[in-house]
């Protein structure tokens, strides 16, 4: 079994590891020349962005060839999924990837502009119980797609429409680097898009962001100094990494 995943702060990687099999980082796959894969079972695990899939996952689906009699996908989320599951299954089908099982898993939401991580950690979410159900379903080759409701699909279409109208709503223009940045380079190492460069001049460190940000917020959440801030944050002192994943694993997944 092959599991393809994209992770910013560890949630989706933690889920991917729970299924066993061979793990393939989507950012790494896209940087390689090998985009054809075949196995008796293939999984795709990623977080919900804008009630749909992250751009990097969409790019993977458009470029990769996946051959398997059983393809499953698990979407991780922290608030609501909207119509993301059906949206992704339809998107995959348009790219000749037929998904037999698709569901979601409620986890801690790390979208800093809206949610306070510390309050998120206090919410009951039954992660382990629900994850075990998903793992069992896949082990039994269950056929199921959680398509949601018509209103869910409307929510996804609305959010995706707004993203096209306001492309800079989630962009590096909302980031600022504080004076306590020491140039350790963690932010660049966890960036799935190689979108951050470190410029050290006269003993001072400065981050240089490109224009290909995935807005996964890994650079902000994982900065040891908490030196990167957003213009608007619910709790500027709260940061997140999944407790079952190490910083080293996230770096290896994205760098």
Name a few traits of the molecule.
255 residues; alpha/beta; 6-stranded parallel beta sheet; 10 helices
Can you offer a commentary on this structure?
- By secondary structure, the chain is an alpha/beta fold.
- It has ten helices and twelve strands.
- The chain has helices at 11-18, 26-31, 55-63, 84-94, 117-122, 127-139, 150-165, 186-190, 218-221, 247-254, and strands at residues 2-5, 22-25, 36-38, 42-47, 65-67, 71-77, 101-106, 144-145, 175-177, 196-201, 204-209, 228-230.
- Helix 1 (11-18) links the parallel strand 1 and strand 2.
- The mean pLDDT is 92.
What string gives the helices and strands in order?
Answer: EHEHEEHEEHEHHEHEHEEHEH
Strand content: 15-25%
Number of strands: 12
Distance separating the two termini: 24 Å
Rg (CA only)? 18 Å
Strand order of the largest sheet: 2-1-4-6-7-8
The average pLDDT score comes to 92
- Oligomer description: single chain
Shape: globular
Percent of residues in helical segments?
25-40%
- The secondary structure category is alpha/beta
Number of helices: 10
Largest sheet: 6 strands, parallel
Unreliable residue runs = none
């Amino acid at each position: 079994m092959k599991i393809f995943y994209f992770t910013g702060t560890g949630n989706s990687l933690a889920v991917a590891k729970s299924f066993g099999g061979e793990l393939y980082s989507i950012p790494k796959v896209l940087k390689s020349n090998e985009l054809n894969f075949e196995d008796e079972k293939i999984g795709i695990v990623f977080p919900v962005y804008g009630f749909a899939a992250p751009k990097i996952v969409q790019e993977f689906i458009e470029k990769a060839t996946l051959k398997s009699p059983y393809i499953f996908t698990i979407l991780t989320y922290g608030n609501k999924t909207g119509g993301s599951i059906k949206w992704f299954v339809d998107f995959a089908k348009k790219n000749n990837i037929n998904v037999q099982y698709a569901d979601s898993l409620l986890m801690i939401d790390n979208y800093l502009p809206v949610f306070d991580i510390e309050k998120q950690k206090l919410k009951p979410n039954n992660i382990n119980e629900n994850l075990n159900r998903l793992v069992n379903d896949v082990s039994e080759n269950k056929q199921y797609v959680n398509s949601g409701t018509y209103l869910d699909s409307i929510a996804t279409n609305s959010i995706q429409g707004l993203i096209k109208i306001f492309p800079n709503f989630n962009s590096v223009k909302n980031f600022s680097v504080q004076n306590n940045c020491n140039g350790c380079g963690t932010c660049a190492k966890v960036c799935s898009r190689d979108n951050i460069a470190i410029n050290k001049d006269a003993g001072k460190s400065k981050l240089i962001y490109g224009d290909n940000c995935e807005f996964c917020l890994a650079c902000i959440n994982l900065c040891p100094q908490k030196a990167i801030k957003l213009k608007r944050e619910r709790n500027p002192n709260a940061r997140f990494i999944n407790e079952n994943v190490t910083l080293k694993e996230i770096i290896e997944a994205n760098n």
